[in-house]
Each structure stands twice: as structure tokens, then as C-alpha cells.
Automatic annotation (TrEMBL), chain A:
GO molecular function, one term: iron-sulfur cluster binding
Name listed for the protein in its UniProt record: Sarcosine oxidase subunit alpha
InterPro entries listed in its UniProt record: 2Fe-2S-bd_N, 2Fe-2S_ferredoxin-like_sf, 2Fe-2S_ferredoxin-type
Protein source organism: Enhydrobacter aerosaccus
Keyword annotations of the record: Oxidoreductase
One Pfam family of this chain: Fer2_4
Protein's UniProt keywords contain Thylakoid: no
UniProtKB/TrEMBL annotation, chain B:
Domain SoxA A3: 376-455
Gene3D superfamilies (alphabetical): BFD-like [2Fe-2S]-binding domain, FAD/NAD(P)-binding domain
Pfam families: Pyr_redox_2, SO_alpha_A3
GO molecular function: oxidoreductase activity
UniProt-recorded name of the protein: Thioredoxin reductase
UniProt-listed PANTHER family: ANAEROBIC GLYCEROL-3-PHOSPHATE DEHYDROGENASE SUBUNIT B
Domain (FAD/NAD(P)-binding) ranges: 11-312
UniProtKB/TrEMBL annotation, chain C:
Keyword Oxidoreductase: yes
Domain called FAD dependent oxidoreductase: residue spans: 7-347
Signal peptide: none
UniProt keyword annotations, A-Z: Oxidoreductase
Matching Pfam families: DAO
Molecular function GO labels: oxidoreductase activity
GO cellular component annotations of the record: cytoplasm
Protein name as catalogued: Glycine/D-amino acid oxidase
Organism: Enhydrobacter aerosaccus
Record PANTHER family: FAD-DEPENDENT OXIDOREDUCTASE DOMAIN-CONTAINING PROTEIN 1, SARCOSINE DEHYDROGENASE-RELATED
Length: 96, 469, 374
């Protein structure tokens, strides 16, 4: 869906265990979009797939698990070297 | 990066939001000698309009345009002003006693303010069409945000739909960045032109019209602009086609990305949760706070500047921030020197001129604001238009009872993406004005915090006894 | 005078009023349900959704029996509602816990239960005191600070907002005239007909049932009844939806069928439902994390405060008027627990025109005068 105007990835993160190259200054949501990941979670209500929608912190559709903590807003969290991101399935598990 | 523990227990002025209003307010107040902190939840300042202004990888100045780069001065002034600017800081509560609840990197804290300026700006109006929850459908603002902040541009078949100045601006920016746009589907009704005519003289005196015409010419030269009366996104699990009705016939466009936009509306959640009175604005089709000449709200000590005070755009937002800051300085440090408010007010008046014309000409049609059938209204709880309409017909008179019955507005977005739609649907079923229907009652936390963060807050003896019995 | 349009007008569209209106409609009555508007002070939008037995009745033994009667009727009640509306209110009765975070709390709990069950005339039901390891067998996620709990197998819970919606859908389907924004200003009885005056006009009926929560205090004297009320503010904290982790309701913490966790049970003076006391929410959160440490990094998405419907002594009031025959009053704190009784036991009494003293005599408001005399 998206590509980089300036191809300067400098940070490496893991998404569902796979290595993804990102740029310092990316948010997690932007890194997922640039990597071509087509959805970041399925909903806890009907299981429908969702992807980032607003990228400004209001829609909560870009919720992902970041470093083991679920339901974080990917569009508000900057990527960091070694960060582990996981897409989500339905409801979050307590304690994760 | 500033941690929650590094904050002072109290500041003269707390500014919430780092867009033009917040940056201008914090600069002015700090330079006048108020201890000032600005909290912003994004990784960098600029708000949405100047998103990524200090860090954007888009160095070719023409892509984003000169209006964008005007934000750089605001950001550097704020940095030099002595105000503490804290990014990655989410304000989740604001009490009428002016205690501000902040969350930074998973740690919550209460900080006391002498005055508060809410500058949380706007968000895009809900655009509830069939299929708007599919991956591949985003807001136009989202595409603009990631262009500014990360230098990302759409790579597949891209369709823009809706109406409003931002849609034209985004189209032009994407074209300048080398993006091919398959089509721009224009939803505004031709009849709006007639209603907008009385506002035309003011508009012609404003800076908007020359810029606007230039953008439209630029876009129309490269993109088919198609007037549409109906719109849907379809696909299994992700967007495949955009279906639209133009001039009575249905057409389909293969698409990888559909960018929606129907103007922006004030982001009311924090202000309403703080208890600030709001009223329905029929011209802008949204709730706006009731404010005095200094942008002071109904809650003493809390001002609301920027687009959160009613939509007027980025340059007006900065002037509004300055007016609110001058009032804060006068209240807390009357001896300090501040710019003459009447000069700022004159600038603001010039910036606000022409807004009425834009509001009327780009008023989204009823059919795009008041969906029917299985179209999802509440994205979080997946509540449909039909459910809301049927429940209203059962006698459910307002959004709060609707929330109890259907869970609309109960998810993590707390009604930001369904509130106006639910109000308008109920109004339509009851045949009354949205003003009479009202809005969700909002309460803290206006953004989620963890139970551990909530548990870490100070607890008084009486408060503990209210629970431990 | 015009004939009454309705057999019974019920005042109050919350859980007590809606359950009563539904019960009356089932009896074949023509019913109007008068309600306030969207911003009404409404306990039914703020309750904790327990169908709860343990510890009910200390100070009025008959209340324990009345509560158990409703608890026993609840499954059938939920089934009837499902048949009529297709909606499942998710009633479950797995038994419920009251967790103690210190030996002192556990001892206090045991004392309450001992005093309760030692009362003369109390119905015999079992509430056990369990230690940490016994509790952990049923609630494996409890934290080390949980020293024990009381457990009663009769306790359960329900989705109370869905119950609220389901009752409204059911009365709508049964042709009850639901009249929102009809706040009652005055009630008069003339020639055997009750005339209720509202800003939207007058509504007439042969009988009137007041089920307006704390507002019964204002309304009851209009028909020769009394409802001494002592409203209380309560706050609740709600989390995001989680996968099921908790199979039993705890009196201060439960997981809904949707997955959210409700945390609550504060009591403060006050009648402003718009106010939120942050320190109270913090205390609730702190105790919840001590009870279930795995909740520490779960997100809170909402809080709310609501005003409890509380009578002067905390027990229900069911009364009929001597001076205004055909006027009834229903007040209670436990609109969820007692919903089955209101729909299936009290409503038929009102339909017949007289309360069955053998069941509800202990709940007359006359008890307040007996206490004064004593």
C-alpha cells in the first residue's frame, strides 16, 4: 500500500518473528505499512481484519502487541532497534 | 526524553497539544515568565498540520508546500521560549481543579496547573460508508501524516474520496511526490454553491481562494475528478474495489488504497470530560465548546484554543493560542509584558475570514453522514446504522441510552469515530435537531491507561475508605 | 372525565420499572412506561450486574429469602426474555466470591456472615469461608495477598446493560407505550383514575406503580406513600476486552461475556453522577491488581460513576397506598438481582390490584415508623 520516498531504513525490528527494516522516525504503524503488512489485528467483536486508519491516535485500529504488551497504539510508538511487534488476533490475553 | 518522575508537581500553565495553537500559546506564556509545560502525545511537535516539522525526511520543499514549512518557525520559537516541551506524553484526565493526569512511557502522574490551555485540535469527521473498516481504507489525513512524518507515499492504485480543502491539498502533495492517483471522487453537493454565495465576498478577501484555485487546477490537470452521490468500499478482508454512483450509474474502480475525507471537527473528548460546556454548530455540523473572547471555557481556568474551539485552520489556531496565553499571563502574572491582544485579534479575524464559505461549500451531504443498513457506525464495537436507527425507533432518545443498549461509543476510541454519526442518526429518526439529541457523556480516562498506572496515583484516607469496608 | 387510556402507568424506565412493565404486559395489562430523557440520573446504566445472594439480609431476615427467590427464578426469567427477543442476557450462576486482602478483612467478613446466619427466621443457605489455597483452586490467577474469601454457590451475574436493552425491546414488542422525557411533576387521583402530569402532557391510568429509583422519594407522597431514600455514589472502572480468564464473579470484580473487566464497589456520599473521584478509582485499581496481578498492564478504557438507589435502611420497599387505592411503590438497590421477582412476582400482584402480604409485608415502609417508635 505504501512505499518510502527516501529509502533509508536504519532500524531493524521483528514483526511476528520476521525481520523488518524500518527508519528511525517511523512509528510502529508506519513501519508496518511500509513493510506491506496488510492488517495489524482482528477485532475482538467479529474477528474482522483491521489496519491503521487515522495514524493520529484517535481510531485505535492500529493496536498491536509491542515488546510483549498488547493493545498498544502503533501510530504513537516510535520504532526502536530490536523491538518485537506482533499482530493481534481478537481479544487481548490478560497478562500480555 | 522527559520521564513522568522528572515533571514538576505544578506549573503556572499546562498546554495540552503541540500543534500551532499549543506551540504559540506555550511560547508566549513562557516568554512572559510563566512556568509552562506543553504535553503532546506524538513523538514530535507540530500537531497534524505541521506533523514531523522538526524531523521530516521530505526535504524537497515543494512537496509539502510553503504553508507547511511555516510551522518550523513556531516549533523553533517554542523550543527557544523556555517552555518544557514533553512529547510522548498522553493527557488522560483534566479535573475542574486543574489537576492534569499524564502518562509517559507507561507511568502515570498528576500535575497541578494554575491555568490550562487545551489545544488538542481536530480530527477527521467520521465517514461511515459501507466497507470503511476494511484494510486499505484510511483517512486522507492519515496519508498526509505519514507523508510528512515518515516520507511514506501510496504505492498501489490510489483513490481519494470526499470533499474539503485538505483533500485537494493532499492530492497535490501526492502528485508532487510522484504518486499516481486513479481518481478523486467528489462528494460535495452542487447545491452547496447556492447556499455558499452569501459568504463569497468574505472568501474572496481571504488568502484561501487563490491557494484553493491553484490546488484545484494542479489536481484537475492530472487526476479525473468525478462527482459522486454514493460510495462504498468492497473486498474480502481488504479493499479490492471502490464502488460509486455518479450521475445515476454505478461504477467500480479497482483500488489498493482508498483515502477518505469529509473535513475536520473539534476533538472534544478531553474538553467535554473536563466539564466544558459545548453546543451544536449547525454550519460546521459538530459540537463546539462555549467560549468567551479569550477562548476561556465554562470551566474556570481552562481555555480551548486552536481547531478544538471550532474549525478555523492552522494559522488561525496559532493566533487563538496566543490570545488564550495572553489571558493566562494576565491572570497569573499581570505585571508581565505581553503582545497587544487587539493586534492578535485583528490577525485572527483575517485568518477566520472565508471559513464560512468553506464550511458551506464543503458541507458533506446527509447521505454521507447518516448511513443506513449494515454500514458500521461504531468501528470499535461494530454497531451498524440499522441497529442505531431501530433502537431510536424503540424510544431510545439519546446517545447515552444508545451506548447502554448497543455499546456504541464504549470501545477504546471512546466515541471519537462514531459520536457525531450516532447523534445525527438519532436526530434523524426522532426528527429533531442534533442540538436536542446531545452527545456522549465523556469521562476520564479520555485515553486508556493501565490499571497499574491508575493504581499508582495518590489515594486519600477517605478515598480508600470508600472502597475498603 | 375521560376513561383511562392505560390500566397501569409505571413511572421509571430503569431496570425496576422496565421489568415491572414487562411483567404487567405479560398479565395482559395495557401499560404506559414513563421515563426521563437521555441524561437522566440512571442507576440502571451504572450497576455492577451481579445476581447476588451472599450477605444479603443482615438486619432484615426476610430480605435473604426474597433475594434467593429471585436468584432461583432468574434462569427462567432469562429464558422467557430470550424467547421473546432472541437476546441472551448471559445469566450465569457459578457461585461468587468476596475476596479478602488481609486476615482482618477475612475475619470481618466471617463475622458479618455469622451475624447474618444467626438471625431468627433466616432462610438456610450456605456461605463458606475459604483459605488462599481453596480459593486458588477455583480462581487460579489470584495474587499472594489474597488470604481467603467467602464463597456462595447461589451467586451469579448477568450482562446488565443487555438486560436493560432486552427488557426495553420486550416491552416494545408487547405494545407497552414507552414515553421518554415524561418526567412526572404531579399525580392526582380523581374518580378512580390517576392523572399524571408531565411537561409533555397528561397520562391517565387506573393504577400507578412508582419505580423511579431515588426519585420515588419525591413521587411517593403524591399518592399517600413514602419512600425514604439515602442515595450513594458508586464508581466503576472498566478495562478493554480480554480473553476469558475469570470463571466466577467476585463482588468487586467480574469479567463480562464481552470480555471487559468491571472493577468497582465504592460508596461515597453525593448525588452528582458526573463527578469522578480519582483517588477512589485508584483504590479500586490498586485492590484489583493485588487480587489479580495479571491485570496490572491491562488498559482501563472507561470509568463511570452512578447514584445507587438506596432506601433509608438499604432494604427494598414494596407498598400499596391506603389513601390512593391502586397506587404502588417499588424501591430497591438490587434492580438486577431482583428483576425476576419484579417481573414474575410483584407485577402480577399489581395486575391483580393488591400486594400479596405473605410475600412482601416485611418490605413495607411502615417499618421505618416501627423503628422510630422503638
Amino acid at each position: 500500500m505504501f512505499k518510502r520516498l527516501h529509502d533509508t531504513p536504519t532500524v531493524t525490528i521483528k514483526v511476528n518473528g520476521q525481520t523488518v527494516r524500518a527508519r528511525s522516525g517511523d512509528t510502529v504503524a508506519a513501519a508496518l505499512l511500509a513493510a506491506g503488512i496488510d492488517h495489524c489485528r482482528t477485532t475482538p467483536v467479529t474477528g474482522a481484519p483491521r489496519a491503521p486508519y487515522c495514524l493520529m491516535g484517535v481510531c485505535f485500529d492500529c493496536l498491536v502487541t509491542i515488546d510483549g504488551i498488547g493493545n498498544r497504539q502503533g501510530c504513537l510508538v516510535p520504532v526502536r532497534e530490536g523491538m518485537e511487534v506482533a499482530t493481534q488476533v481478537g481479544k487481548r490475553e490478560a497478562g500480555r | 526524553m522527559i520521564a513522568a518522575a522528572d515533571l514538576s508537581p505544578a506549573y503556572d500553565l499546562i498546554v495540552i497539544g503541540g500543534g500551532p495553537a499549543g506551540l504559540a500559546a506555550a511560547s508566549l506564556a513562557a516568554r512572559a515568565g510563566l512556568s509552562t509545560v506543553l504535553f503532546d502525545e506524538n513523538p514530535g511537535v507540530g500537531g497534524q498540520i505541521y506533523r514531523g516539522i522538526t524531523s521530516t525526511p521530505v526535504k524537497n520543499g515543494t512537496v509539502l508546500g510553503e504553508d507547511y514549512w511555516a510551522g518550523a518557525a513556531l516549533a523553533s520559537e517554542a523550543k527557544a521560549s523556555g517552555a518544557s516541551i514533553v512529547n510522548g506524553a498522553t493527557v488522560w484526565t483534566l479535573d475542574p481543579s486543574l489537576a492534569v493526569g499524564i502518562s509517559i512511557a507507561g507511568k502515570a502522574r498528576l500535575v497541578q496547573a494554575g491555568r490550562v490551555i487545551i489545544a488538542t485540535g481536530a480530527l477527521e469527521r467520521p465517514f461511515p460508508i459501507p466497507g470503511w473498516t476494511l484494510p486499505g481504507v484510511m483517512t486522507a489525513g492519515a496519508a498526509q501524516t505519514t507523508l510528512k512524518a515518515q516520507g511514506l507515499v501510496p504505492s498501489g492504485r490510489t483513490v481519494l474520496a470526499g470533499c474539503g480543502p485538505l483533500l485537494w491539498l493532499l492530492a497535490a502533495q501526492l502528485l508532487r511526490a510522484g504518486v499516481k492517483i486513479e481518481a478523486m471522487l467528489e462528494t460535495s453537493s452542487r447545491r452547496n454553491w447556492l447556499r455558499a454565495l452569501p459568504h463569497l465576498p468574505d472568501f474572496l478577501l481571504s488568502p484561501y481562494w487563490r491557494k484553493g484555485l491553484g490546488l484545484m487546477r494542479e489536481v484537475k490537470a492530472a487526476v479525473p475528478v468525478i462527482p459522486v452521490q454514493k460510495l462504498a468500499a468492497t473486498g474480502a478482508g481488504k479493499l479490492k474495489e471502490v464502488v460509486y454512483v455518479s450521475g445515476g450509474s454505478e461504477r467500480r474502480l479497482l483500488a489498493d488504497l482508498l483515502l477518505l475525507h469529509h473535513g475536520v471537527v473539534p476533538n472534544v473528548n478531553l474538553a467535554m470530560a473536563a466539564g466544558a460546556a459545548h453546543r451544536w454548530n449547525e454550519r460546521q455540523l459538530c459540537f463546539v465548546p462555549e467560549l468567551d473572547d479569550d477562548f476561556g471555557s465554562s470551566v474556570p481556568g481552562i481555555a480551548i484554543a486552536g481547531d478544538g474551539a471550532g474549525i478555523a485552520g492552522g494559522t488561525a489556531a496559532a493566533e487563538r493560542g496566543r490570545i488564550a496565553a495572553i489571558a493566562a499571563v494576565r491572570a497569573l502574572k499581570p505585571e508581565a509584558s505581553v503582545p497587544a491582544p487587539q493586534v492578535v485579534r485583528q490577525k485572527l479575524a483575517r485568518e477566520e475570514m472565508g471559513r464560512a464559505f468553506l464550511d458551506v461549500i464543503y458541507r458533506p451531504s446527509d447521505s454521507f453522514r447518516r448511513p443506513e443498513g449494515d454500514t458500521i457506525v461504531c468501528r470499535c464495537e461494530e454497531v451498524t446504522a440499522q441497529q442505531v436507527r431501530a433502537t431510536a425507533d424503540m424510544g431510545c432518545e439519546g446517545p447515552n441510552q444508545m451506548k447502554a443498549f448497543l455499546r456504541s461509543g464504549m470501545g477504546p476510541c471512546q466515541g471519537r469515530l462514531c459520536g457525531l454519526t450516532v447523534t445525527e442518526l438519532i436526530a434523524e429518526q426522532r426528527r429533531v435537531s442534533p442540538a436536542e439529541v446531545g452527545y456522549y457523556r465523556l469521562r476520564p480516562p479520555v485515553k486508556p491507561i493501565t490499571l497499574a498506572e491508575l493504581a499508582s496515583l495518590p489515594i486519600g484516607e477517605a478515598e480508600r475508605k470508600a472502597v475498603e469496608r | 372525565m375521560a376513561a383511562s387510556e392505560y390500566d397501569v402507568v409505571v413511572v421509571g424506565g430503569g431496570l425496576v420499572g422496565a421489568a415491572t412493565a414487562w411483567g404487567l404486559a405479560r398479565e395482559g395489562c395495557r401499560v404506559a412506561l414513563l421515563d426521563e430523557g437521555d441524561r437522566a440520573v440512571r442507576a440502571s446504566r451504572g450497576n455492577f450486574a451481579l445476581v447476588w445472594v451472599q450477605s444479603k439480609g443482615l438486619g432484615l431476615a426476610a430480605y435473604a429469602g426474597w433475594t434467593i427467590r429471585s436468584s432461583e427464578a432468574w434462569a427462567g426469567f432469562a429464558g422467557l426474555l430470550k424467547d421473546e427477543t432472541g437476546l441472551d442476557v448471559c445469566f450465569q450462576r457459578p457461585g461468587g466470591f468476596h475476596l479478602a486482602l488481609s486476615e482482618k478483612e477475612l475475619e470481618a467478613r466471617a463475622n458479618v456472615l455469622k451475624r447474618l446466619h444467626n438471625q431468627p427466621g433466616i432462610v438456610d443457605y450456605k456461605t463458606e469461608i475459604l483459605d488462599h489455597s481453596q480459593v486458588a483452586k477455583m480462581l487460579p490467577d489470584i495474587g499472594p495477598e489474597v488470604v481467603g474469601a467467602s464463597y456462595c454457590s447461589l451467586d451469579g451475574h448477568v450482562n446488565s446493560l443487555r438486560l436493560f436493552r432486552t427488557l426495553h425491546q420486550a416491552i416494545h414488542a408487547r405494545g407497552v407505550a414507552y414515553l421518554p422525557s415524561h418526567r412526572v411533576d404531579d399525580i392526582r387521583r380523581e374518580g378512580g383514575t390517576f392523572r399524571l402530569f408531565t411537561p409533555q402532557g397528561e397520562v391517565r391510568a387506573g393504577r400507578v406503580a412508582l419505580a423511579a429509583g431515588n426519585a420515588n422519594m419525591r413521587l411517593a407522597p403524591m399518592v399517600g406513600l413514602e419512600a425514604p431514600m439515602k442515595p450513594e455514589r458508586g464508581q466503576i472502572v472498566v478495562t478493554e476486552r480480554l480473553r476469558p480468564f475469570l470463571n466466577y464473579p467476585v463482588v468487586t470484580l467480574r469479567q463480562t461475556d464481552e470480555g471487559t473487566v468491571m472493577i468497582g464497589d465504592s460508596k461515597e456520599e453525593g448525588t452528582d453522577p458526573a463527578r469522578l473521584t480519582l483517588g477512589v478509582a485508584a483504590t479500586e485499581a490498586e485492590r484489583a491488581v493485588r487480587q489479580f496481578p495479571l491485570l496490572a498492564n491491562v488498559n482501563v478504557v472507561r470509568t463511570w460513576s452512578a447514584i445507587r438507589v438506596m432506601t433509608g435502611d438499604g432494604f427494598p420497599i414494596y407498598d400499596e397506598s391506603e389513601t390512593h387505592p391502586g397506587a404502588f411503590v417499588l424501591c430497591c438497590h438490587s434492580g438486577v438481582t431482583l428483576a425476576a421477582n419484579h417481573a414474575l412476582t410483584v407485577a402480577p400482584m399489581i395486575a391483580r390490584g393488591a400486594l400479596d402480604k405473605s410475600l412482601v409485608a416485611p418490605f413495607s415502609a411502615r417499618r421505618f415508623h416501627v423503628q422510630e417508635a422503638a
